[in-house]
Design goal:
This protein has three domains: 129 residues, Multidrug efflux transporter AcrB transmembrane fold (Up-down Bundle); 90 residues, Alpha-Beta Plaits; 84 residues, Multidrug efflux transporter AcrB TolC docking domain, DN and DC subdomains, CATH 3.30.2090. With 430 residues, the protein is α+β, with helices and mostly antiparallel strands. Strand 8 and strand 9 form a beta hairpin. It contains 13 helices and 14 strands.
C-alpha cells in the first residue's frame, strides 16, 4: 500500500502539489475560524440555578427551596447528576448534563421545569439561571482608577453605566461587579417610638413598599380637552421616605419620621477588593459565553471600553487587572517561534550533512503543511486552540522534523546508491 502510494505520488507530482496547497489553505482558514483560548475548558456541562431568600437559615433554605427544586429537576432528560448546596439566604443547584448535550438546549429544558417548580416555592422566591458561561469563562478583569471619588459613587458608575455598555459586546455572557458600596436607603427605627405608636416592623415595610409606586387613573374631560389622571408616587430622596404615612394614632397620621430616621448608606459587605495593597477599588469581571473565541471577544471588549471611557467623569480611567489575551498571544508566539526555529535548524542540518538544498526544501514544505493539518483536525473535532493543544503541536513539530530528516536522508542515500550502481554498470558495459 505504501509502495503504491509513493509510486503514485512520484508519477503525479502536480496532484501532490495541488493537494498540499489545498491542505495548507484549509489549515490557514481553520486557524482563523478555530476558537483561540489560553486555558482548556475541562469543566462539566452544567447549568447553575441560583435562588435567593435573604434572612433564612440554611436548614430552612434546604427544606423549602433546595429540596423542591432538586426533586422537580431530576426528570429532565440527558442528566448525569444533580448537586445542590444550601447556605444562609441562598441556594445553589448544579445540573450536570451529558457532554454531548447542547448547552442552550439544556438551559431551555431547565427553564421549563423551573416554571413548574415555581408553585412549590415560598411566595416571592424566584429561582434564576446562572450566566451561560463555563468555569474558565473569566477572560478579563478591570477596575476603575478614580481618585477623589468615593466607593459608593464608583459602584453606582459601574452598575448603571459601564456594566450595561460592556454587556452589549458579542460573546459576553455577564459582567459581574465587585468592590465598593451598593447604595441603598436605610431606615433606622427607634423601638421605643414604635412601641409608643403601636407600630410593627411589618407595617413599616408594607407602607414603604406600597408608597413607592405610580398609579394611573381615567381620562378627565373638560372644555373639549381630555386630561390623563396619574398619581406620581415613586420615591426620589430620603425626604420622600420620611413623609410616608404608616397608620393613624388617635386620629393623627404616624409617618416614618416619627418613629426613626432615614439615611443613605451602603449594603452589607462580606469582603473587600484590594488592588496591589494600595486600597479598595471597584471594577468588573467579564464572563465569556460557551464556545466563543476568547481572543476576539477580548479585542471587541477593549474597543468598547475605549468608547465607554469617553463618557466617564473627568479623572476616571480603566485599569486592567487580568487580561487572558496576553497569555493567548504568548502561547501563539511560542508556537510560531518553535516552528521557525525548527525550520532553521533542520535547514542547517540538512545542508551541512547532505549538501543538498532540495532535501532541505522538502522538510521546510512539510512542516507548515503538518501544522495546518493539525489545525484542520482541531476545527473538525471542535477543540479550541489553547495552551495544551498548541503545546502538543509544538512538541509534535520535533517528531515531524526527526521523521523528515530520517526519511529524506534515507531517500537521498538510496538514490545515491542506485546512481552509483548505474554508473558502474555503464562503465563495465563500455
Amino acid at each position: 500500500m505504501v509502495e503504491k502510494l509513493i509510486t503514485f505520488s512520484l508519477k503525479n507530482r502536480l496532484v501532490v502539489l495541488l493537494v498540499s496547497a489545498v491542505l495548507l489553505g484549509w489549515g490557514v482558514y481553520s486557524v482563523q475560524q478555530n476558537p483561540i483560548d489560553a486555558i482548556p475548558d475541562l469543566s462539566e456541562n452544567q447549568i447553575i440555578v441560583f435562588t435567593e431568600w435573604m434572612g433564612r437559615s440554611p436548614q430552612v433554605i434546604e427544606d423549602q427551596v433546595t429540596y423542591p427544586l432538586v426533586s422537580n429537576l431530576q426528570g429532565i432528560p440527558k442528566i448525569k447528576n444533580i448537586r445542590a448546596s444550601s447556605m444562609f439566604g441562598m441556594s445553589f443547584v448544579y445540573i450536570i448534563f451529558e457532554d454531548d448535550v447542547d448547552a442552550y438546549w439544556a438551559r431551555t429544558r431547565v427553564l421549563e421545569r423551573l416554571n413548574y417548580a415555581q408553585r412549590l416555592l415560598p411566595q416571592n422566591v424566584v429561582p434564576t439561571l446562572g450566566p451561560d458561561g463555563t468555569g474558565v469563562g473569566h477572560i478579563f478583569w478591570y477596575h476603575l482608577d478614580a481618585k477623589g471619588m468615593d466607593l459608593g459613587e464608583q459602584r453606582a458608575l459601574q452598575d448603571w453605566y459601564i456594566k450595561f455598555a460592556l454587556q452589549t459586546v458579542p460573546g459576553v455572557a455577564e459582567v459581574a461587579s465587585f468592590g465598593g458600596f451598593e447604595k441603598q436607603y436605610q431606615l433606622v427605627l427607634d423601638p421605643l417610638k414604635m412601641q409608643y405608636y403601636n407600630v410593627s416592623i411589618m407595617e413599616v415595610m408594607d407602607a414603604v413598599k406600597s408608597s413607592n409606586n405610580d398609579v394611573g387613573g381615567r381620562k378627565f374631560e373638560m372644555s373639549d380637552m381630555a386630561y390623563v389622571i396619574r398619581g406620581l408616587g415613586y420615591l426620589k430622596n430620603t425626604a420622600d421616605i420620611e413623609q410616608i404615612a404608616i397608620k393613624n394614632y388617635n386620629s393623627v397620621p404616624v409617618i416614618v419620621k416619627d418613629i426613626g430616621t432615614v439615611q443613605m448608606g451602603g449594603d452589607l459587605r462580606l469582603g473587600i477588593f484590594d488592588a496591589d495593597g494600595n486600597g479598595e477599588v471597584v471594577g468588573g469581571i467579564v464572563v465569556m459565553r460557551y464556545g466563543e473565541n476568547a481572543n476576539e471577544v477580548i479585542d471587541a471588549l477593549k474597543l468598547k471600553m475605549k468608547e465607554v471611557a469617553k463618557g466617564l467623569p473627568p479623572g476616571v480611567t480603566f485599569k486592567t487587572s487580568y487580561d487572558r489575551s496576553e497569555l493567548i498571544k504568548n502561547a501563539i508566539e511560542s508556537v510560531k517561534g518553535t516552528l521557525i526555529e525548527e525550520m532553521i535548524a533542520v535547514s542547517i542540518v540538512i545542508l551541512l550533512f547532505l549538501f543538498h538544498w532540495r532535501s532541505a526544501l522538502i522538510i521546510l514544505i512539510q512542516l507548515p503543511i503538518s501544522v495546518a493539518i493539525g489545525f484542520i483536525l482541531l476545527e473538525a473535532f471542535g477543540i479550541s486552540s489553547n495552551i495544551m493543544s498548541l503545546t502538543g503541536i509544538a512538541l509534535a513539530i520535533g517528531v515531524v522534523v526527526d521523521d523528515g530528516i530520517v526519511m529524506v536522508e534515507n531517500a537521498y542515500r538510496t538514490i545515491s546508491e542506485k546512481q552509483e550502481e548505474v554508473s558502474e554498470n555503464q562503465e563495465e558495459a563500455s
